[in-house]
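User: Can you write out an input/output pair for a complex, sequences first and structure second?

Assistant: Here is one pair. Inputs:
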Amino acid sequence: MLLQILNGLVYGGLLYILAVGLVLIFGLRRVVNFAHGSLFMVGAYVGYAIATYFGNFWVGLLVSVALLAALGVFLDAVVFRPLQREDPIVTVLVTFGILLVLEDAVRTIWGKDFLSLKPPEALAGTVQILGESFPTYRLFVIVLAAAVAIGLSLWLRMSRIGLFVRASSVDRTTTAILGVNTDRVSIIVVAAGAALAGLSGTVSAPLLALSPSMGSFILIDSFIVVVVGGLGSFSGAFFAALIIGQLHNFGVVYVPSAATMIPFLLMVGILIWRPAGFAGQHV
Amino acid sequence: MSQPSERIALPAAPRLALVSRQVWLALGIAIVAGSMLPLVVTSTLAITLLTQAVIGGILATAVGLVIRQTGLVSFGHAAFFGLAGYFIALPAKHGLWPLELSIVLAIAMPTLLAFLLGLVIVRIPGVAFSMITLAIGQAFHEFAVRARLVTGGDDGLAINLPRTVFGVATEVFQRPQTMFVICWVALVGLLFGLHLLVRSRFGRVTTAIRENEERARFLGYQTVVPRALIFALSALIGSIAGTLFALYNGFVSPESLHWSLSGSALIMAIVGGTRLLWGPALGAVVFFFFKDVAGDLTEHWPAMIGFMLIVVTVALPTGIGGALTKLFDRIRPAGVRRDG
């Protein structure tokens, strides 16, 4: 039982790191990045390639996060900013096109076969938690997700950029009128969102099998998280990720054939009750 | 649906001729020309491709209808397409009831499901609607993959087809030459029906809701049910496509529920243009031929399709269909402005 809750926390943690990137980008740009799952997938593959080349997981993690942050800057400059005056759906369609291109690129470079990455040696063992042994690496993922949650909320609350991000999530126009350069803030935020996708991807590489379609699988769960939590809400995404992580895990253990139906039913239930998600005022 | 005119006196709407002479002419030409096509195109490969394109065109029309009448972009229409296939395959596997009943159910059940879902999800505006439809569609796909005992999992199910369906020999549905004509007539018939629908009172109410939901509500119109009805109608069209596809192939698999099919249908609709009813179907033909040509030249056709989507979205917001009408109107300046 304890182990299952912990495993649920692992998946919930990965989902949170990914979903919070979507929330960050939505807050500033009012668009949803459909290529976010592909960023996760690219992050996983880059992490895999660098980590196996240097024989060091941490180098892979660092390079992947840095590269994805750079990709985020590029995406903001080439996609989100030029399209910000268009209907948000235009950006959705363009990022959907990017998804197809990125999946194809990864398939070309690394092939269709499943790849796997070993966890770093320092974390390869197991730890005893209340008499049950639990893989150290999984514990690391939980701690990392908690650290991201704490770090992000401190950043949003304490820093100047964080203030701008929160202000812009509430009312972008007024924030811009008050003299905040939302374009500059947006570069940082989109880079941070993409870097988090890379972090989540690389960290998940030792847990999940790597395949070009891994991005769309987790994208859908992170969409459920974001919608259930309320688009644009950081705390909503946090709690929704925890719940979906637990439900996903219990579903896989107890009702494997209907496991993916459970988050979906939860989502429909939440939407009947509160159409804007449980923390959202408006969508 | 409420009829506000009973409560509030509205100025009489200008009477439009429901079906103009040009539309009757286009309908006749389309049906005759389409039926003759298999006589002209002798290559089985080409006619197979065309049949696929027309079935894809029906699904794309379904996606395009939701965009055109509600402004909402669905990423989950493969759910209705694939469900229809399973509604045909499963009863046939267990010999539960005649195939004709299965076909009726295959079209009715996804429509009903879409109506009920629509009551919940059409209230969710913009991008969130796209995210939700993607998630819902994929939930069905995952279920079909996991519930191996019922659906056969990834292997799919072969459909035990009887010798005749509605008194027509089954092989008529499986030969590309004859199936092309059936699918084509279905597509043209559906487009004609939609042409009538969007000009009806109901069509104009939904357009008004698309333009400004809040204002339509203040004018006394119910705004959720009409949009749910559009979503259901769209599912009906999508499940017709799924039914035709299942009869044509004699086989269903979770592929037919996968989000990449929803995505392809959406790409067809966007590429063809959603302001015109026939845009998505045009987009489907372009999509299939592009895929065929690109597939011969390079393995990277998914990336090519992605590029095509990006280019059309940014450079041709009204799609190829919109660009063609603009060109046509420029050539014939005094022409009648045509909608849909």
